[in-house]
Amino acid sequence: MTNRIRAALVAAVLVVGTTASAQAQTHRSHFGPRLSYNFDAKAVGIGAQLSVPVAHHLEFYPSLDVFFVDAGSLLGINADIKYRVGKADISWLYVGTGLNISRRSVEGLSHSDAGLNLFLGAESLKGKVHPFGEMRFTVADGSTAALAAGLNFTL
To answer: How far is CA 106 from its chain centroid?
Structure first.
């Protein structure tokens, strides 16, 4: 495991460890399924994400996507921070960044790559089920873009 991946994992653990006493704008954690499309792999994926309040407007936002590629497998794991932009009247808009670890396997050969996520999304915060959509760019050796949509259920 590279030093860059280790440092990101330590930072993610520290963020999660501080969430017990903090509250974000949504004040509650959310979990749900997602459907994604990776433009570079030309593949549809399914996954899940979790949003955990960290501070006002700020959430820890890990997610996992399994993409259905023609040959082999492609897995994306994200450890992100999501920031809700603006005041309460536009709290549906968010931006974020974090670590992406992708693993591609084909015919017994596999390769893992770490990259930086940058994303922009919109999520309804009305009711207990929140639909969302987001555009995500991952900057790495093999930079990529993905579009995701899904539901978040209030926990």
So the answer is: 24
Average pLDDT of the chain? 85
The rounded distance, in Å, linking the Cα atoms of 93 and 59 is: 13
* Bridge pairing between strands 73-84 and 109-123: unpaired
Give the chain's radius of gyration (CA, Å).
15
In whole angstroms, give the CA distance from residue 9 to residue 30: 21
Whole-angstrom distance, CA of residue 65 vs CA of residue 77: 7
d(CA 54, CA 50): 12
Per-residue pLDDT of 114-153, as tens digits, reads: 999 999 999 988 889 999 999 999 999 878 999 999 999 9
DSSP collapsed to 3 states, the chain? CCHHHHHHHHHHHHHHHCCCCCCCCCCCCEEEEEEEEECCCCEEEEEEEEEEEEECCEEEEEEEEEECCCCCEEEEEEEEEEEECCCHHHCCEEEEEEEEEEEEEECCEEEEEEEEEEEEEEECCCCCEEEEEEEEEEECCCCEEEEEEEEEEEC
